[in-house]
Amino acid sequence: MSHPEKILVTGGCGFIGTNFVRYLFEEAGFDGLLVNVDKLTYSGNPKNLADLAAKAGEKHYRFEKLDITDQAAMAALFDRHGFDLVVHFAAESHVDRSIVGPGEFIQTNIVGTFSLLEAARQAKAKGRPCRFHHVSTDEVYGSLGPTGKFLETTPYDPRSPYSASKASSDHLVRAYAHTYGLDVTVSNCSNNYGPYQFPEKLIPLMICHMLEGKPLPVYGDGKNVRDWLYVRDHCDAVWAIACRGKSGETYNIGGESEWCNIELLRHLCDIVAARLGKPAGAFEPLITYVPDRPGHDRRYAIDCTRIKRELGWKQSVDFQHGLEKTVDWYLGNAAWIKDVQTGEYRAWITRNYADRT
Ligand code: NAD
Ligand code: TYD
């Protein structure tokens, strides 16, 4: 598949989906029709793409507020548009939420993926086959000790309801390739950061708390390690795989930038302080150790040799520059932060994390 002209993006109003839609139109020169299906849960914000929608017009961009678990609606959408490519981001994505309430994760991540696969299978049977790119996480591989990295061949060992639901959806996607001959690709990526990330994830949560003078909650001993990738580089990788990846194959995507949480947070504190003209260390007193996340995976690290070697992809934004860009985006988008922190999110956080309100 080289030049898809009709693309279905699921979850395009979320963090990575928004960046991906922007990347396609603003950087990749995409000139076809992109249909964005999103249920607009607490983490989906249609305003993220309002300017782009107006600029692109109906010929190039359409938004459909739909639930991917609605099989009839998904089948009708495939019938109406005859997609060449599906890029499937829509998911419940936050580990802490999956611990408090796994039900939605089973519904959206497993049943929702199944319903899209069924729609793709039916479209193929009607003579309109499409490529199905499934966006997944490195968390399906489990937790690492101090050394080693996840390879595409690493056995699955998911340990949270979130990662178990993503692992399940990955298996379904591969099963549809083997059983029904669907043209699928899968990517497993490390932790993303950048603009439009909902401020429940580590980096935007900490930036927002610094701005509000709230405690900065560090789980456990703060020594858990994550591999961080700037979101634009993830989008670039997904597009490369969707267009040029080998059918039926999986590609790991990573930042090759491992940080333990407490060191990352100290660094982030310094960047925010500098940007606000405060002395280094100004936010240190806000750092607060809180009880650990149940089942907290210790370390993730990705070996992304394959995508580099086979598709010529590489990271373009180093962590220092990416963090600065991210801090600047949040500092410049106070209205966006306020907007997304209302409603269902506010109620949930109040119910479950009294120390975060
Ligand atoms: P997000 O929570 O910011 O966005 C998810 C989007 O999906 C939202 O717009 C939401 O409204 C939509 N959605 C949720 N349930 C839906 C449903 N039933 N029907 C239609 N739309 C629905 O998540 P994100 O961080 O952008 O993650 C996107 C994808 O990338 C997910 O599949 C996630 O597993 C994967 N991923 C994320 C990361 C990361 O660091 N954020 C890393 C690797 C992989
Ligand atoms: P998170 O952004 O939730 O991503 P994931 O759990 O999918 O890796 O968390 C990143 C790391 O930061 C993880 O080790 C948990 C830790 N963390 C905290 O210490 N405090 C927090 O408030 C949050 C949200 C995360």
- Which ions and ligands are bound to the chains? nicotinamide-adenine-dinucleotide, thymidine-5'-diphosphate
From the alpha-carbon coordinates, what is the Rg to the nearest angstrom? 20 Å
Strand segment count: 12
What is the level-2 CATH architecture name of the domain at 6-193 and 229-256 and 301-316 and 343-353?
Answer: 3-Layer(aba) Sandwich
Mean pLDDT: 96
Beta-strand fraction estimate: 15-25%
Specify the helix fraction band.
Answer: 40-55%
CATH class label of the domain at 6-193 and 229-256 and 301-316 and 343-353 = Alpha Beta
Summed up:
This protein has 357 residues and is an alpha/beta fold.
What does this protein look like?
With 357 residues, the chain is an alpha/beta fold. It is built from 13 helices and twelve strands. The chain has a domain at 6-193 and 229-256 and 301-316 and 343-353: NAD(P)-binding Rossmann-like Domain (Rossmann fold), CATH 3.40.50. Helices cover 44% and strands 16% of the residues. The longest helix is centred in the first third of the chain and has 23 residues, at 103-125. The mean pLDDT is 96. The chain binds nicotinamide-adenine-dinucleotide (NAD) and thymidine-5'-diphosphate (TYD). Thymidine-5'-diphosphate binds at residues 95, 191, 201-202, 205, 217-219, 224, 226, 261, 293.
